[in-house]
């Protein structure tokens, strides 16, 4: 079995044969890595912006959701720092220095602020975070088991940082770039030289090494945080192998993604049907648009055209596995009402005069229920597939999309029978981003394939 570093070398050689990339492919790839790195590196450290919100902020300078101003600022600052690292890596004559690292910390933290901390004896306190300066107080952390994990002391930090820079310069051309990047990342984390931002900065430094050696940036996925931390903990006891292998595995993903771009292929992860579902839970706020009949109707049209139609298009691939299908709609748990139009016998048979046609103005209705007559609090769309082919006994499937309307927001649930496979809370002013719709269809595909395989086998 090949070691991940061997796979890295093979893919790196393949990527080099495909250089240079076409401008449009390079643009696609740069955008992919930019969003993936900013979202995941921030999310690991507790930033609550979703992937879609990160995309909206960085590409369109727009925001949605209820997040603190600091989270928006730090996301944009992290992006600036990543761009700075990209430019720094291109300057092969410029060495890495302590001052550059301090400048990066100042960029990602934006400005001084107060944060919860621990005293030397393990008591909770609050401390002002001074950006761009080495720590003045211990920045120990409490582990899940209650133990206090000690990083370098404030007195040791300047000495250890100078030693780190010297080590890097000595090993820069001796170690494999992935090994060099990984150990630099770990040594920096182990010192934890700043009051805050050390995790993000360690990953920026890791990518500085890779980019300087013409590798694509490595993305540590927030969804894989536990494995990442476990590899770091093993390094704490002197075993660097798992961490180097882990980072190499992530570099393999980056190289494969870059090769896809170079070949003009889609950058979507085809096998990733369970890409982390971003549950957006926004608390109702007086600043949000309140519920009204017109708002409910407009939201219904948005869900019906943007979301439910996409779900139906996805389900057409599965419909052929069943004998027949049916769609059902309801409002306030009441079935859809179909209007009866009175027409003339002449229209039907061409022999008699008109009997009755209402002149009543057209109403704004949702599945036959007028929004100005009914207080609509829930709408459901249901697709039923009858009799799965190849199953030993007749098996039906029910896919249900449900929208519940609250005073200042609405909830969306997609279910297979009673099992929820996607759920989100949105303000009435929010729209569905393409990334959200992709998440829904990926989750739906995965669950349906698993269900059908189990029943047919």
Automatic annotation (TrEMBL):
Keyword Protease found: yes
GO BP field: proteolysis
Keywords, in A-Z order: Hydrolase, Protease, Transferase
Keyword field contains Transferase: yes
Molecular function via GO: ATP binding; peptidase activity; transferase activity
PROSITE patterns per record: FIDO
Signal peptide start and end residues: none
Domain of life: Bacteria
PANTHER family per the UniProt record, alphabetical: FIDO DOMAIN-CONTAINING PROTEIN, FIDO DOMAIN-CONTAINING PROTEIN DDB_G0283145
Name under which the protein is recorded: Adenosine monophosphate-protein transferase and cysteine protease IbpA
Origin species: Mucilaginibacter gotjawali
Lineage start: Bacteria, Pseudomonadati, Bacteroidota, Sphingobacteriia, Sphingobacteriales
Gene: ibpA
């Amino acid at each position: 079995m090949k070691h991940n570093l061997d796979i890295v070398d093979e893919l790196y050689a393949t990527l080099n044969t495909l250089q240079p990339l076409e401008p449009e492919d390079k643009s696609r790839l740069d955008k992919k890595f930019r969003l993936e790195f900013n979202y995941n590196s921030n999310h690991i450290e507790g930033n609550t912006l979703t992937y879609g919100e990160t995309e909206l902020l960085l590409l369109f300078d727009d925001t949605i959701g209820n997040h603190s101003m600091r989270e928006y600022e730090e996301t944009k600052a992290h992006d600036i720092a990543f761009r700075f690292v990209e430019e720094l890596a291109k300057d092969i004559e410029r060495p890495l220095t302590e001052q550059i690292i301090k400048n990066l910390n100042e960029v990602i933290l934006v400005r001084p602020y107060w944060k919860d901390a621990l005293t030397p004896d393990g008591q909770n306190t609050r401390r002002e975070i001074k950006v761009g300066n080495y720590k003045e107080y211990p920045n120990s952390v409490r582990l899940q088991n209650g133990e206090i994990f000690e990083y370098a002391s404030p007195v040791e930090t300047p000495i250890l940082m100078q030693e780190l820079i010297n080590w890097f310069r000595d090993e820069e051309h001796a170690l494999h770039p992935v090994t060099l990047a990984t150990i630099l990342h770990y040594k920096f984390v182990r010192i934890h030289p700043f009051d805050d931002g050390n995790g993000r900065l360690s990953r920026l430094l890791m990518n500085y090494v890779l980019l300087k050696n013409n590798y694509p940036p490595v993305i540590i996925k927030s969804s894989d945080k536990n494995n990442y931390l476990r590899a770091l903990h093993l390094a704490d006891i002197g075993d660097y192998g798992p961490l180097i292998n882990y980072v190499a595995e992530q570099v393999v993903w980056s190289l494969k993604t870059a090769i896809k771009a170079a070949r003009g292929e889609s950058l979507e992860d085809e096998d990733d049907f369970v890409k982390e579902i971003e549950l957006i839970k926004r608390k109702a706020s007086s600043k949000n648009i309140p519920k009204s009949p017109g708002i409910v109707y407009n939201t219904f049209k948005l869900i019906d055209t943007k979301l439910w139609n996409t779900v139906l298009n996805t389900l057409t691939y599965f419909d052929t596995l069943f004998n027949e299908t049916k769609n059902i709609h309801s409002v306030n748990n009441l079935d859809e009402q179909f209007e009866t139009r009175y027409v003339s016998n002449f229209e039907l048979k061409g022999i008699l005069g008109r009997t009755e046609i209402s002149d009543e103005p057209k109403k704004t209705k949702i599945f036959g229920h007028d929004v100005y007559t009914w207080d609509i609090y829930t709408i459901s769309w249901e697709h039923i597939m009858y009799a799965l082919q190849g199953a030993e006994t007749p098996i039906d499937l029910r896919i249900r999309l449900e929208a519940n309307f609250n005073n200042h927001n609405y909830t969306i649930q997609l279910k297979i029978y009673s099992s929820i496979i996607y759920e989100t809370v949105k303000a009435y002013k929010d729209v569905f981003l393409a990334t959200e719709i992709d998440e829904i269809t990926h989750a739906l595909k995965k669950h349906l394939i698993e269900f059908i395989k189990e029943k047919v086998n």
